Amino acid sequence: MWSYQAPLRDMQFVLEHWLQAPEAWRRSPVFEALDLPLAVQVLKEAGRFSSGVLAPLNSRGDRQGCHLSEGRVTTPDGFCDAYRAYVEGGWPALACAEALGGQGLPQVLDAALQEMLYASNHAWAMYTGIAHGAYLCLKTHGSPWLQERYLRAIISGESLPTMCLTEPQAGSDVGLLRCRAEPQGDGSYRLDGNKLFISGGEHDLTSNILHLVLARVPGAPAGSHGISLFLVPKLLDGGQANGVFCDGIEHKMGIKGSATCSLVFDAAQGWLIGEVNRGLKAMFVMMNSARLHVGLQGLGHCEAAWQNARSYGAERQQMRAPSRPAGVVAQAVDPINYHPAIRRILLELRATSEGLRAIGYWVAHLLDQAEHEPEPRARQQAGQLAQLLTPIIKAFFTEQGFRQASNALQVFGGYGYIAEFAIEQTLRDSRIAMIYEGSNEIQANDLLLRKVLGDQGQAFELLLAQLREESRLGADIPECAGFAEQLASLCSTLEVLVGEVRELSLEDAEYPYRAAGDFLQLCGLILLALAWGRAARVSRQLAEDDPLRAAKLETAGFFFSYLLPQAEQRVAAVRGARAALAFI
Q: pTM for the full model?
């Protein structure tokens, strides 16, 4: 009763019209051979793999879960075969450098791939989701020997990596971690300690697993300034077992096909990545990539929820609706998607999923521009914008993934609460994304205190410039003038609000922390306003008889009328946070 088909038409619309990505590709020597037809073909193949191979395993993986026996984890039936097909298709190498054995395609295409993987089977995609971040980390900070020995194994899919941060006493505060790394005479280190909540810490998809582990060397400073990063393989050269053991897997609310492991490092051999005591600098390369991917999980859940709720709403008949589409003859009962309350939910699902897609792909495209744009200033500004938007992508997208899965379940009524219809699995699977890779509360603090207030407003001004430019472009188009006016008003409100927060934080240092959550949600809504203002404007490039043109304008109207008014509440909440919170 659960299905998924990649939304290829909308993906192409975002690439071709919303981003105008092919024009940027032609400016870059790295991507000049890539054109829209080739990009669309890549997306079609990714969609075929996701819907044909991964989606049928989604419910099965949830029912079976993972099993641990004598330190070995067995994944659900079909997961290993799916991974072999993934590797044979060349998908691990999609956005990796050609010089290192990758395909050298843009990260925006990888973002589309990730959306499809998470929408079709979140649990399975947890095994592969960290690979690109580990590739970037090793590529940026790994020694030549480490790169030669292990980087190509990640690119080819021969080995899968993990990210080992959390310990029983050290969750969000990594400065409390105790895992130790003792230098050895051969240049390696001996690691001892425990890690937990390690996604894919043990599995049967690949023979070797490459653990990227945060630990302390002897004499390291206390806190986060005394942390180093190490690569610790499950198997050493020649297939010899390293001192890494899985001593438990978690029994979870969702993503049950993903092995969430407790690991013991007992005299495990590892090698330093980057510099001693500078591990967080190296790890953040990986974490920033992971946070974009986690945001795309929210988009994937939203899209899957929208597709299945739309299908069910068209089939389920109950009562007579007060009105019907033109030309539809009245019946004793109507499909529930004729009823205003359900139409409202379905339109919110569509507006949110398509809006998130535009913004999520934009950030991935900014990362491509930050690396490959010919003009240095353009590269710098793209990087600044991407860093500013990353915490919003992570927190706002994942909250919407959960919220919209809940909305979709409401369309199913009582059937949505039982396992046969699988929307309840989507709801359960989506919840974790609001917690891991830095909880959404941490993302909100990062956005307001570090990214907005902390850099003298440089990146924030770049965002305001984008909002102003879109409102200017839409102002002279009759169908978009109202949207442009609202966007311009939001831009002014946001600018004033940040000034107020900056001034009041000088008197009350806790105030920005109290306001951060609502501020991030406000920014998310404003980004959706940007997405729909631009979508309405550029949809005029489509043929007049193209149904997508009318659908984009219709959905934009719904967003600005029904969803954007929530921004007023968020503005009031940010200002209301001036009142101190009581201690409980």
A: 0.96
